[in-house]
Amino acid sequence: MRRLRKSRQNRGLIAGALALFFLFGQAYTALAGFGISPPSVQNARLVPGSSFERTIYLVQGNPLKPLNISVTIDSKNMEEWISFEPKIPFTIPVGIQQFPLKIKIVVPKDATLGVYKAFIRIQTEPEKARKAGGVAISLGGRIDIELTVGDDVV
Predict the structure, then answer these.
(1) What is the rounded CA–CA span in Å between residue 98 and residue 92?
(2) Cα 41–42–43 angle (5° rounding)?
(3) What gap in Å lies between CA 39 and CA 140, rounded to an integer?
(4) Phi, psi angle pair for 132, to nearest 5°
(5) Is 15 exposed, middle or buried (0-12, 13-18, 19+ CB in 10 A)?
(6) Which of 116, 34, 44 is nearest to 82 (CA)?
(7) For the chain, which terminus, N or C, has the lower number of CB atoms within 10 Å?
(8) Is there a contact between 118 and 82 (Cβ–Cβ < 8 Å)?
(9) Any residues with CB less than 8 A from the CB of 89 and at least 6 apart, and which?
């Protein structure tokens, strides 16, 4: 009787171990990854008529295919101040894991003093969705912009 119980217990332990292995033991790899570094642009020392540039890096985890990028600016009053290099839309070539995106901001000479905020949304455009006109998963990120236009000269 004792042998029978141990045999059943051993089978139960083995079955449990196999179930855990199949549930959690397999290595899953991420097929895509996309990020932005740094995720914000801040400047608290601007005067009307000034300009500056920042370089943001678009980082992808697996650069096996060209990556089409589109950009939208969400702002009430400073959309015209912002430009990009390269021009939007653009494609990140195969094999490039960190792609530099220059953001140039030009404050107009007639800008009123104050704090300005905007968001830049960067989206990948999946090739399958463009060709087929269907639905696909798109990766993206957001860059927060906060600028202070004042009257003090640095």
Answers:
(1) 9
(2) 130
(3) 12
(4) -90, -15
(5) exposed
(6) 116
(7) N
(8) yes
(9) 68, 69, 70, 71, 125
Query: Nearest 5°: phi and psi at 135?
Result: -100, 140
Q: How many CA atoms within 13 Å lie on the side-chain side of 78? A: 26
Of 59, 58, 66, 71, the C-alpha closest to 127 is 66
- Tell me the two tokens of residue 77: 């009053």
The band of 24, judged by pLDDT with boundaries at 50, 70 and 90, is low
Q: Where would I find the H helices in 25-143?
A: 127-132
Give the residue ranges of DSSP H helices in the chain: 2-24, 127-132
Cα separation, 140 vs 33, in Å, equals 9
Whole-structure pTM value: 0.70
